[in-house]
Amino acid sequence: AHPAVVITMYLFLAAAAAAAPPAEESFGFSLEPLWHDKGLPLAIMGMTVVFIALVAISVFISQLPRLMSWIDGVAPQAKPASVAKLAAKKEDDAEMIAVIAAAVEVALGPGHRVIHTQQLTPRELAWSQQGRWQHQTSHKPR
Q1: How deeply is 105 buried, as exposed, middle or buried, from its count of CB atoms within 10 A (0-12, 13-18, 19+)?
Q2: CB-CB contact of 113 with 101 (8 Å)
């Protein structure tokens, strides 16, 4: 090949390489903004904030037993009810059973009686609360 042709081809290839976008930008992806548009410092700052929050949460959780014992010292637990209060409660329960038995007799007629009563547990109350919630959310109020 003639030296002038080789030099001309070299200059042509150099000009084409300078005019063409870099290989990274040809696919629409470039790491240049990370270095020049404060992307990397922003990412480091975000990670630092997340790690500081995680450390604060772990310190709070590790100190929670100490905090709870301090709260128990400031506000002690309620004392159990006395025997006199329990006896009064049993009398109130007996009166409530008498009222329920009277209501059953009035509503259903003579010959019916109350065989068993008990207080509802929180689990049993949860069922009725769930039923009320479903009923109240099943329609739009007018």
Answers
A1: middle
A2: yes
Distances (CA, A) of 103 to 94, 114, 118, 119: 14, 10, 17, 18
Burial state string for 36-64 with b = 16 or more CB within 10 A and e = fewer than 16:
eeeeeeeeeeeeeeeeeeeeeeeeeeeee
Contact between 113 and 104 under an 8 Å Cβ cutoff? The reply is yes
Taken as a whole, the chain contains a residue count of 142
DSSP letter, residue 139:
S
| Secondary structure of residue 114 in the 3-state scheme | coil
What six digits make up the tokens of 14?
């150099």
Q: What is the pTM for the complete model shown?
A: 0.32
C-alpha span between 70 and 131 (Å, rounded): 40
Instruction: Quote the CA–CA distance of 3 and 9 in Å, as a whole number.
Output: 10
Tokens of 128: 């009725």
Q: Which of 24-38, 47-61, 92-106, 128-142 shows the lowest mean pLDDT across its residues?
A: 24-38
